[in-house]
Amino acid sequence: MNTAVGFLPEINANKSKQRSSTYYSRMKQTKESLRARLGPARPAESLTRKEIALFRSSPKQSICVRLLQEGFHRSFSELVSLLRSDQDWRATAEPGSLRLRAPPLVEQRHKMETISQHLSLAEEAERTGIWSTVCEERLLLGRFFSDPEDLWLRFYFYHSCTDREKGRFSRAATEARACLTELYLDRGELEEARQQGELCRKQAEDGGWLDSDGRPLKLRACRDLWKIYRELAEAPLAAEDHKKALTLLHEGNSRAAESEDKHMKGEAAFQVGLAYQRAGDHSTAKKFFNTSMEIFHSLDGTDRAVKACIALAKSLKSEGYFEEAVACLERLVAMSRSSGLHHRLIDVHLCLGNIYFSRSQYVKAAEYYLQGYKVACTTEDVARLQRAQVLVASAHAHATNGKYSAKLTSTSPAALQALLAWKVKRGREDLSVDSEDYYSPAWF
Amino acid sequence: MEAESQASAIIPLALPKGAEKFCELCQREARLQCSKCRVTFYCAAEHQQADWVGIHERICQLLVPIRALTLCSLRQTSHTETQIKKLIEICRLVAQSKLSEGKHQEALPAAQLCLRCSIDVHGPNTVQLVPAYLLLAEANMGEKQAQNDFLSQAEWAVLKSPKCGLTIHHQLHRSLGRLHVAAGDLDTALHNFANDIYFATEEYGLDSTVTSRGYFLMADVFTKQGKIPTVHSLYSEVARIWHRHLTRLLETRKESIQNPPVDSFYAERVEVDEMLRTMLEFEQKDTRKDPARIAVVAHCLAMLSLVRDGMAYGILLLRSSKHRIKPVTSNDTRGFFFPQRLFLFCGL
């Protein structure tokens, strides 16, 4: 109340000093000292409503609310329906399946965030009419889910990309189709895979698209289609429905030819040849085997070339061209020995043995079988080893059979004597091969 | 007239000490008594009239056993409680129907009584009071302070017990959103409407009419913000939901023409009508007219009038909507066949 400072003497000075010891002023002092200790008041760092809501609400709620706030209500609807379908599936699923072991989608924040992000971008593009971006975003989502328990999500997003009204012929949709083809093939749904594959091939041809890794989509589609046709042909082949099998394999062959993959072309030709061989049409089979061999030679794939050649030899044998077959196989012996392809070498030997066996030349057959057996001993291929053993034994049996069958049928005492003598000495004779070698393991 | 014969005067001084009577609506000293039930008091004739129209006409006799202090009523407290709960329910329904018809002033007495009875039964700050608070907030549309007060109370009750049910959450957020829109705070309003739609979807599903109302309110905010493509997208979603709903209603009505079913959205007809008209206006004002969208909305309006008002008006509107549908191209077969299907329903 000192309006005139310095005009009048301070008469209240002592009184104010007395006052400073009252309760009220002591309280005020402590308050001020506290404030001084805490420092100047911080500017209100109050959290906004949104930040508070992030803490209080579940991940699902915060993501959904964010989507709606930005106006992406269709993404919101899609996310909600995805979560609901996941929950419905879990309610009715059999226990123990892979997808059940993973936590439900509603508890996986990261996945929900990715879905919401891409879907909102897709919705934005859809509003402005840029269909290719819409498909791209959905494709990205399909590729993002690589865990085996998220297979349903991949199917969902790829289908949502390819089943759209607008934009289903875009690059992204074509790539999604290629991915769908592969997924259906892995699952074993061959007809679906074939449908998707053919559509993909057509679209890729029209558009000349490349996929996200830079490879041309058409070649990828053709490769997948060849695998599909080969698997589709297995059933008719097993059922001896050669016509149907051959149609399918021819389709596969043409796809393989389009795929520009020489390895695949060779393999395709080989399969067609095999089918013709099974059907009994050896001349056509031989043509295809020759094509296959040429391709593999050019590729320097000796292993497969040898396989094709063996098949060719079988065809020749079935047609009756034994000398050609033998000559072909002799060449192969040298080839496979030089390339170190032991299993093929065994096969060649056994094949040669087979040819002689079929001509009842059991001794020669046994020779070749034995050679094959020796090679098999050096490798660890148990199956081939066992096969060789059986064949060697069989050849020997037939050989000895041949020697004594005449004596068995005749009733003269000389023949009987000879048989008895053989019974005593049997097992210690040899048939022009080293006895120690073939006695020890061969008779097991 | 009738209003005067319903109320009789009382002399406050004549009442015993501790038994002061207060006005039903404003809680001031009461000078009038309802002559029918004699347990309700008013300060002036206007309040008596307002209360009569608002709620008292329906519940006059129901109040007697609750408010009259007799020996029996003191003993049977549980019985009284059930009666009060019934009263609360009646008040709530009356208030809601009046609000949907747009009569906000008339809904006030009902909402106030609902709140007071709820406090009596459940206690002052419980979550069961939230519906009453929301009704009061809506009835006070236009008075921001009162609205704010009631909504804050409701919000606090909900915050204290968050597991109160999805319906309450969504209703609260809807009211809050509308408050913020009126206040001009569009971002918070959007946040509230987003929460509203989320809870409504959780409770009722994606295709429910409740959710569609939420979409409509959000589209309103986006219009204010100027984001037109979003608005179009939201309106088309609302139109789709209502179209489905109305088509189904018409089909069921066609089947049970003898006993018309009580429509679940009877009380919301005015609201829905307004909503559809706003949407139609918006679509027509847009420079890039999408005839398919306009056709859907016009068709919804026609179906609504058919369901609501019977055939005559419905046919009138049908003809006008058919006129609008004409420019639709032949590719959009849906738009073309709408009026034909409706004529089938009418039996023409």
Automatic annotation (TrEMBL), chain A:
Main localization (coarse): cytoplasm
Gene3D superfamilies: Tetratricopeptide repeat domain
GO annotation (BP), single: cilium movement
Keywords noted in UniProt: Cytoplasm, Repeat, TPR repeat
Pfam families, per the entry: TPR_8
Entries under InterPro entries matching the protein: Bac_ResReg_Asp_Phosphatase, TPR-like_helical_dom_sf, TPR_rpt
Cellular component terms per the entry's GO annotation: cytoplasm; sperm flagellum
Compartments, record wording: Cytoplasm
Protein task: Axonemal protein which is implicated in axonemal and/or peri-axonemal structure assembly and regulates flagellum assembly and beating and therefore sperm motility.
Protein name as it appears in the record: Tetratricopeptide repeat protein 29
UniProtKB/TrEMBL annotation, chain B:
Gene3D superfamilies reported for this sequence: 6.10.140.2220, Tetratricopeptide repeat domain
One of the Pfam families matching this protein, by short name: zf-MYND
InterPro entries hit by this protein: TPR-like_helical_dom_sf, Zinc_finger_MYND_domain, Znf_MYND
KW NAD (keyword) present: no
MYND-type domain location: 23-60
Domain of life: Eukaryota
Record's keyword terms, sorted: Metal-binding, Zinc, Zinc-finger
One MF term in the entry's GO annotations: zinc ion binding
Keyword Zinc in annotation: yes
Residue intervals passing through the bilayer: none
Designated name of the protein: MYND-type domain-containing protein
Organism: Astatotilapia calliptera
Gene behind the chain: ZMYND12
